[in-house]
C-alpha cells in the first residue's frame, strides 16, 4: 500500500483591502452664519439667477426647526422639494434614455439626487451659513463633513464609504437644497419645467 502524501499547505487568501475609518470628531470652528437675511436671500437669488416673487418662501426654506422664534421651518418645503426633484429627474431620465429599463432608471435617479450628492451641492455653494438654526451639534457635524470634503482634494479617497468622503453627509445639507428647490417650485406656480431648467443650470448633481 502506497503511503499517502501529507496534505500540502493551503494558500492563504489575501485579506480584503481595508476602507478608511470614519474620521474622529475634531475641533472645528462652527460654520458661519449670515445674520443679514436680505443678504442671505440675495445670495440664493444670485446663485439661481431667479428672483422670488414671495421671498417669505425662501426665508422658510432657510430656517431649521431648531430656530425657535415662531418661524416656519423648512420641513414642509423639503417634503415637496424631495418629490419635485425626484419627478423632474425621472422625466429627464425617461426622455433621454429610451432604451433603459426601470431598474437602471431608478439606479441613476437615486445616484444623482441622493443625500450625499445634494449635500455636496450645499457645500459647493456654501448654503449652510444661510440657514437660521440654533443647534451646535448640527454645526459640528456639518463642519466635519465640510472638512472631509476638503480633504478629498489632497488624498485619494476613491474607496471611502460615503461617495468619496469618510464622513457621512448630514441630511440637513440635502434638506436645504430640497427646500430651496421647493421654494422655487411653489414660487413659480408649480412649474416643474422651470424648476428643472434652474436646477440643471445652477445645481448640476452629476
TL;DR of this structure?
Residues 1-30 are annotated as: Disordered. This protein is mainly α.
Features:
206 residues; mainly alpha; Ribonuclease iii, N-terminal Endonuclease Domain, Chain A; 8 helices; globular; RNase_III_sf; RNase III domain-containing protein; ribonuclease III activity
Provide structural commentary.
Residues 14-28 have a biased composition (Pro residues). Residues 1-30 are annotated as: Disordered. Keywords: Hydrolase. The chain is built from 8 helices and no strands. The chain is mainly alpha-helical. It has a domain at 37-133 and 173-202: Ribonuclease III domain (Ribonuclease iii, N-terminal Endonuclease Domain, Chain A, Orthogonal Bundle), CATH 1.10.1520.10. The radius of gyration is 22 Å and the shape is globular. The chain starts with 36 loop residues before the first helix and ends with a helix.
Q: Which CATH architecture of the domain at 37-133 and 173-202 would you pick? A: Orthogonal Bundle
CATH homologous group name of the domain at 37-133 and 173-202: Ribonuclease III domain
- Rg of Cα set: 22 Å
Gap between N and C termini: 70 Å
**How many individual helices?**
8
Order of helices and strands: HHHHHHHH
CATH topology of the domain at 37-133 and 173-202, anyone?
A: Ribonuclease iii, N-terminal Endonuclease Domain, Chain A
Number of strands: 0
CATH class of the domain at 37-133 and 173-202: Mainly Alpha
Low-confidence stretches: 22-29, 158-162
Amino acid at each position: 500500500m502506497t503511503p499517502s502524501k501529507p496534505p500540502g499547505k493551503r494558500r492563504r487568501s489575501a485579506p480584503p483591502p481595508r476602507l478608511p475609518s470614519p474620521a474622529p470628531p475634531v475641533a472645528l470652528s462652527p460654520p458661519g452664519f449670515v445674520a443679514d437675511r436680505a443678504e442671505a436671500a440675495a445670495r440664493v437669488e444670485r446663485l439661481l439667477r431667479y428672483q422670488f416673487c414671495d421671498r417669505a418662501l425662501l426665508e422658510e426654506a432657510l430656517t431649521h426647526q431648531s430656530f425657535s422664534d415662531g418661524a416656519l421651518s423648512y420641513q414642509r418645503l423639503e417634503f415637496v422639494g424631495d418629490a419635485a426633484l425626484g419627478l423632474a429627474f425621472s422625466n429627464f431620465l425617461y426622455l433621454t434614455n429610451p432604451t433603459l429599463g426601470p431598474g437602471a432608471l431608478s439606479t441613476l435617479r437615486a445616484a444623482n439626487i441622493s443625500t450625499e450628492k445634494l449635500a455636496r451641492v450645499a457645500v459647493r455653494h456654501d448654503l449652510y451659513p444661510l440657514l437660521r438654526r440654533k443647534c451646535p451639534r448640527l454645526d459640528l457635524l456639518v463642519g466635519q463633513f465640510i472638512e472631509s470634503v476638503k480633504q478629498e482634494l489632497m488624498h485619494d479617497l476613491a474607496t471611502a464609504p460615503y461617495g468619496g468622503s469618510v464622513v457621512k453627509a448630514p441630511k440637513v445639507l440635502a434638506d436645504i437644497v430640497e427646500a430651496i428647490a421647493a421654494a422655487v417650485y411653489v414660487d413659480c406656480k408649480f412649474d416643474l419645467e422651470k424648476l428643472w431648467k434652474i436646477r440643471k443650470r445652477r445645481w448640476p448633481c452629476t
